[in-house]
Every structure is written in structure tokens, then in C-alpha cells.
Design a protein that fits this description.
The protein is α/β, with parallel strands linked by helices. 31% of the residues lie in helices and 23% in strands.
Length: 235
């Protein structure tokens, strides 16, 4: 999806913060963003849908210190809008570093995990449109299983209504001043929307179809490849 002159918020300037500095312990210490999926690094798959939207003016990727000092050529040559900063010891620190590496004049900021290579241009565009309207937007999918809340002894204390439960993914997209304030006042957390909610922001879920999986373990690569192949067959 590319922004057209007659689309909502077509003159908005969007920045994207991509945390990609994790240790990849569940992948045996391998840097997940650099793993190949159908011949390209996960990171390339993750950011390409953002590059396809004309409203995106900057993408800042937070890499481990050694990679930030000498980033891979395939990343630096991908698009002139892509730049690199050093990440931090936690996801929150990496997102914060990327946020403040973005141009100061962006109106909208998206945060997207490098380990989610299956996000679609349609989802990216829909989340940006929601943020242009003043709300936060979180890509996700409605829960398909019944959810139980327990106490510390695993005794069930509540069964929330499943129709109101969502799984939160990324991108998570917000008005720039809101997400910057949320991170400036943050005392920690792994979900960007939670930080925004803490400073009074309102957030809407955007259905991404459920195939926007996160590559966490080796077997997830095979699942991601199968999803990409099915999309190619459908197309």
C-alpha cells in the first residue's frame, strides 16, 4: 500500500523505530534479524512494507553495538530512509534509542519488531491511518482460545470473555508526541501500547489476520516460510 494524495493523513510524516538488538537466546544466540527467510534477512522482510508507504520518511533500526558500528551492506543500501543506531540491553532501551534517532518533525511513529517478517502493507497502512486520527493502533488478532487468569498457585480466578481478548503484535503506531512522552516517562515495560496507556493515551486494535507471527524459535522459520509460500500461491 502506498499513500495517495486523497488518502487520510496523506501529508503525514511517519517514522519507524525497529528494535533489532536482542541476543536471540531462544535461537541459540543467533541474531534473529539476520536469519534468512526465502533468501532475504528477516529484517528486510519486516521493514519492506513500511518502505512501500510513501508517508514513511525515516526508519531507524537499533542493532547491537558491534553491528551498529559496522552495519551490513544489505541494510545500509536498502533505502536512503533507513539508518542505524546502537540498541540497548533491553527492548525498551532499544526502542527509546531508535525513537530519538528519528527526525524531530515526524507526526506519527511506528514501532515494529524485526522478528515479525510477515506484516503486510495493508496492516501497516491501516495502523498509520488510525494513528493519524489521534489514537494509538496495535496490530493483533482476536483470541481463538479461552483465556484463564489464575493466582500464584495456578488456581483459576477469572475467565475473561473471549470476544474481548486480543493478542497484541506489532506494528504499534502512535501520534509522535504521545509515544515520545510515554517513553520519556517510562520506568520499563515490553509493550509500547502499555506505556502509552499509562500516560492517558487511547489505543485501538487493528486486525492483522493472525498470520503476523513472531519468529522466536527455529521452528518458527519454517512456519513463516510456509505462510510466505501460501501468499505467493494465492497471488
Amino acid at each position: 500500500m502506498t499513500a495517495r494524495e486523497d488518502t487520510p493523513g496523506s501529508r503525514s510524516r511517519v517514522g519507524v523505530a525497529v528494535p533489532a538488538a536482542g541476543s536471540g537466546q531462544r535461537m541459540g544466540g543467533t541474531r534473529k534479524p539476520f536469519l534468512e527467510l526465502q533468501g532475504e534477512p528477516l529484517l528486510v522482510h519486516a521493514i519492506r512494507p513500511f518502505l512501500a508507504d510513501a508517508r514513511v520518511v525515516s526508519i531507524v533500526v537499533a542493532l547491537p553495538d558491534e553491528d551498529a558500528a559496522n552495519p551490513p551492506v544489505w541494510l545500509t543500501r536498502l533505502d536512503e530512509r533507513v539508518s542505524v543506531v546502537a540498541g540497548g540491553a533491553t527492548r525498551t532501551e532499544s526502542v527509546r534509542n531508535a525513537l530519538f534517532g528519528l527526525p524531530s518533525d515526524v507526526d506519527i511513529i511506528a514501532v515494529h519488531d524485526a522478528a515479525r517478517p510477515l506484516v503486510t502493507s495493508a496492516t501497516v497502512g491501516a495502523c498509520i491511518d488510525v494513528a493519524v486520527g489521534g489514537l494509538g493502533a496495535v496490530a493483533g488478532s482476536k483470541a481463538v482460545d479461552t483465556v484463564k487468569r489464575t493466582d500464584a498457585s495456578r488456581i483459576v480466578v477469572e475467565t475473561p470473555e473471549r470476544d474481548l481478548i486480543w493478542n497484541a503484535h506489532t506494528p504499534q503506531v502512535f501520534p509522535a508526541d504521545l509515544i515520545r512522552r510515554a517513553y520519556a516517562e517510562s520506568d520499563g515495560g515490553t509493550d509500547d501500547a502499555v506505556l502509552v496507556e499509562r500516560v492517558g493515551g487511547r489505543v485501538r486494535m487493528v486486525d492483522d489476520g493472525g498470520m503476523n507471527i513472531k519468529v522466536t524459535r527455529p521452528e518458527d522459520l519454517a512456519i513463516a516460510a510456509a505462510i510466505l509460500e501460501s501468499r505467493g500461491a494465492d497471488g
